């Protein structure tokens, strides 16, 4: 199969969209498929042996490390030259909209992967009146897709409510070797918490939309050492706000594996996560999670089993949940034991096999004359979804 991936971001940007696209490309290479990538900004010319085409991009004034793509004729010309069987739209917004238009013109089905809560992102940056416009634009893109894949049940409900059809659940995989309790390091723990404190950690972007400032509510909890891993525009203000916390900066590879597995409690502060890969990685590393009861974490955190949930609008609820785990070592140990088991079935291999299945279904329907006649139009342009598809896949 020939798969053209049009992504809203790619390397060198490191985020959830980039990570999933890289894992998909690696899977396609291992299984003998052909692929290409179109993404904004400067980046590598190839990945996993597949070509990467770049389009113009600009940096957000309030988030200089984040690039936003611009529409470009390169998208249409690249897809036309590649002749894909299916177009994969990764978190389509601007570049993805051009990819959708190109797929339409080429008569090729598109599978859209919904990954970013843009409306929630805008609200966190003070753009509270933008919801209707954002959802209108997203509906304009997704209504033309053969299928929209969503990462969590909460996101499924939200997209249904906004009139986006043909939805299927498709989560995210986790690298069970890279994120593993075996990487826990007593040496590192002594460095981070020299007085034997309970290590409470966060891993992720340091930005307003992640609400990392809420960690300050934990700073005076007795017996803890707060450890923050990541970088972003809020880094300087967070360091001033939490002078006693350990800020590790951006860590990747073996360093990240070791730090994460050495936490005692993982805290996620974001309330607009469509999935939340960081939570899943912490669970794979055997670390109980405290997260907001919203979005993706609702599918990942089983309260009392592998972590605790708190009301998303309650910083005090977050503090109480963390304080409970800090004080109860027995509960922490039990949840730690359950954490990894709760995500063992969520491997990238299994998830990418499902994704290829979605590709194949989209292509088969595109090539099915009788189905086109029954609908009176191309299947992916139908105005309503088949009821069975709204809850298909895991």
TrEMBL record:
| Glycosyl transferase family domain ranges (all copies) | 190-340
MF terms in GO:
hexosyltransferase activity
Q: Which residues form the Glycosyltransferase subfamily 4-like N-terminal domain?
A: 14-178
Q: Which UniProt keywords apply?
A: Glycosyltransferase, Transferase
Q: Which GO terms describe its biological process?
A: carbohydrate derivative biosynthetic process
Segments of skewed composition (Basic and acidic residues): 376-394
Q: Where is this region: Disordered?
A: 368-394
Name of the featured protein: GDP-mannose-dependent alpha-mannosyltransferase
Taxonomically, the superkingdom here is: Bacteria
């Amino acid at each position: 199969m020939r798969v053209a991936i049009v992504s809203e971001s790619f390397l060198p940007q490191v985020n959830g969209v980039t990570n999933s696209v890289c894992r998909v490309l690696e899977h396609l290479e291992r299984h003998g498929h052909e692929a290409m990538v179109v993404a904004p900004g400067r980046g590598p010319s190839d990945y996993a042996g597949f070509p990467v085409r770049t389009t113009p991009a600009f940096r957000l004034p309030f988030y200089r490390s984040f690039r936003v793509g611009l529409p470009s004729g390169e998208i249409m010309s690249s897809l036309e030259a590649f002749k894909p069987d299916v177009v994969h739209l990764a978190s389509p917004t601007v570049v993805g909209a051009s990819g959708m238009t190109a797929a339409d013109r080429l008569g090729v089905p598109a599978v859209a992967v919904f990954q970013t809560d843009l409306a929630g992102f805008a609200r966190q940056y003070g753009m509270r009146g933008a919801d209707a416009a954002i959802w209108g634009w997203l509906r304009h893109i997704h209504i033309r897709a053969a299928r929209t894949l969503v990462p969590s049940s909460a996101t499924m409900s939200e997209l249904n409510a906004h009139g986006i059809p043909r939805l299927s659940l498709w989560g995210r995989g986790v690298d069970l070797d890279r994120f593993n309790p075996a990487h826990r390091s007593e040496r590192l723990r002594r460095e981070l918490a020299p007085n034997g404190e309970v290590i409470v950690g966060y891993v992720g972007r340091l930005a307003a939309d992640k609400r990392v400032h809420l960690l300050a509510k934990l700073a005076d909890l007795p017996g803890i050492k707060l450890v923050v891993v990541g970088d972003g525009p809020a880094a300087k203000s967070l360091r001033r706000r939490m002078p006693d916390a350990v800020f590790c900066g951006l860590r990747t590879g073996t360093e990240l594996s070791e730090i994460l597995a050495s936490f005692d409690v993982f805290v996620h502060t974001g309330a607009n996560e469509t999935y939340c890969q960081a939570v899943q990685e912490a669970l794979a590393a055997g670390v109980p999670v405290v997260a907001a009861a919203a979005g993706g974490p609702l599918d990942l955190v089983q309260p009392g089993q592998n972590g605790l949930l708190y009301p998303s609008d309650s910083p005090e609820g977050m503090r109480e949940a963390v304080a409970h785990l800090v004080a109860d070592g027995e509960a922490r140990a039990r949840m730690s034991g359950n954490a990894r088991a709760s995500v063992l079935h969520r491997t990238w291999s299994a998830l990418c096999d499902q994704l290829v299945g979605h590709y194949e279904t989209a292509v088969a329907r595109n090539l099915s004359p009788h189905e086109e006649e029954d609908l009176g139009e191309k299947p992916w342009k139908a105005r309503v979804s088949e009821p069975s598809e709204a809850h298909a896949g895991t």
